[in-house]
Amino acid sequence: MSKGTDILVIGAGLAGLTAAAHAIKAGASVRLIAQGWGQQIVAPGWISVWDRAEGDALPAAADHATQNADHPYALGNDLSAALTAFRDLTAEIGLPYDQRADGHNLRVPTMMGAIQTPLIAPRGIANGDVTDSDGAVLVVGFTGWRDFHPELAAQNLTALGTAARARRIALPGAASHWDRWPGDVALLTEGADVRAAIVRQLKSELNGVAKIGFPAVLGLNHHADVLADLTAQLERPIFEMPTLPPSVPGTRLSNRLRRWLLRHHARVQIGHPVSSAITDQNRVVGVNVAALGHTNPFYADQVILTTGGLYNGGIQSDVSGKLWEPIFDLPVSAPDGEGRSGWYAESLLDPGGHPIHRHAGLRVNAQMQPFDSEGA
Known about the structure:
Strand content: 15-25%
Number of strands: 19
Strand order of the largest sheet: 11-2-1-15
Helix content: 25-40%
């Protein structure tokens, strides 16, 4: 990529935001256009690589790629370098991500008290790794808030072998918190008086407690300060457990990346669907963006497509079983079978997953360039 190259990124999910940031770091001028925010707004914000690995996750992923030539990991991308670049970027924007020193997956609790195994996670979530927990986990919830039930989480954690107990505390500042969205509660915890009230109610509950888990609402704009303050006052590691959507950790990440892009002079347009490609002799030179009653053309030297899959609208389908990519009309690989007959396994919770989620996608080379219908 030469300095001054114009890059147009389509999509504002995690892939689009980070691709835009790395393009800027490489010296490009960037415009990002998206119909809406991506899946990280409902996801917990962590990064899974090979979550079933028993040992070091990256060698396990590489071994799987060696044995499965059609797996995305087999394309030759350097996962370790990608993770390092992502961690460097999140540290730069003030939302550091952590991982275990031994390369094993984290074991972090969910709001249900189940255990998920991402490789790296926001520091507030990574602090909850229960792999070598010495002592009980105190799971804290807020009285009158319907989105998080500490008793359920503690009961299930204990059943899975991690000693845990629950405590509900009252949050000051409103007569009722029943319908508050996670982001509203996160803003509430940024108040020093609210944190002081939390500490007062928990100080006498800490005998035998190794770490304290809260719903993932410890600050929205000043998360690091909230996390550090509660850690210092309660003298225990503090961690977050994902809540019902919208995801506060994912929202934090989107907000910080967007602000980073704007500070580095990227143009960020959210709420503008890209409708079609502009081509010149079979080369994409720009896109048309829908506006009221017309389209606006935007031109670029290179285009990065990060619109996601079926869940995100980057791939679309109909009742006949047809799958298509809506902007560039790129060919989409589909599961075997007539129509939709091969899309799903017999069991909803089939451990192998459903073919439509494993096999529907674009065919690309090691540079992530898509193939056409002839394989070129």
